[in-house]
Amino acid sequence: MIEADVAVVGAGAAGLSLAHRLARPAPGAPPLTVALIAAPPGPLQAPRRTWCFWEAGTGPYEAAVTASWQRLRVHGPDGRAHTRDIAPLRYKMIRSDDFERLVTRDLAAAPTVRRVEAAVDTVQNVHGGAEILAYDAAGDPCPVSARWVFDSRPLGGLPAARTTLLQHFHGWFVHTERVVFDPLVAEFMDFRTPQPAKGLSFGYVLPTGPHHALVEYTEFSPTVLSPRGYESALRRYTQEVLGLGRFAVVGTETGVIPMTDAVFARRTGESVFRIGAAGGATRPSTGYTFASVQRQVETVASALRAGRHPMPSPAHSVRSRAMDAALLRALDTGRIEGAAFFTRLFSRVPAQRLLRFLDGGTRLHEDLAIGAHVPVLPMLRSVAELPFLPRRPSDRP
Predict the structure, then answer these.
(1) pTM over 0.90, yes/no
(2) Domain of life, per the record (predicted)?
(3) Residue 108 belongs to what domain range?
């Protein structure tokens, strides 16, 4: 039996971030032993991912940042470009492989952290803590006992919700023959794409050099596309919209992010908690998760060091979740045109304020000012009907 003060289940962004924070010495606080339980090599490991977020200055994971941009651009459905300088913020991209290498290196040097490669079967509450039943790559039992457990594994299904859309995307890492990209500007949303009946679609371009970029096709809609559908959409976007000419695809990424007003349980037992996307860290209206994960695990780490109850704090405020619920309902019913909605916000709201709004960092008077730029009647109708809508179980994984 492996024993620790804290067990962290899952070695994705949330699990690694929490273990990394707990590995750092804290003045005046006793050290905490940590068991980080990571899936062994194979199908249980998460696919490679790209995480994006914005922050001012140098962050704790700067060494893992692939690229960053101070200027963001949105192309409206009419083809007009709106470019904004977001200083002092920068929009940053981290690839999961680079993040894992950085954090793993630091954890290897931390005497209080033990990495355990095992597949978790069950997490059970016991008196004074919890026990985890896991199996290593050879199939042998690998039990872990801890005072506190933080589980970051993806949920098997979504909680009941009034509205659930999917943000689904497929991207190509491309290398072009000729110079086509401006490495100083990220294409935040490019709505020069065919729009679905409900939701929206857009292109997304993160250039890392004059010849290199991550180019993605993204939809917010009720259902995902077939592999051929994504390929066709990307081919059209890269050739007809961007005009890339000849290029090589040197990597791909695919993902599905639930955009839902469901309430995610942050506690599943006396000593067992959920963190990351499983604990509601994903912003329902945008799909961004990485920055809120960092805020969430920081509150957990601070509580543990101070000897307080380490209940993860809500990743998003009540007001933010209410606004997101109204937006999701308006998109799902087709009351608002998503492409025009987001283009209007980006073109009329100061960029720094808009990004703080998307991060849940604005005050009430700022939210009201931003609300003046949205279609008032469709949004009010969506707000008014939310209390009367039942929350139904989702059939989407």
Answers:
(1) yes
(2) Bacteria
(3) 2-47+97-156+263-306
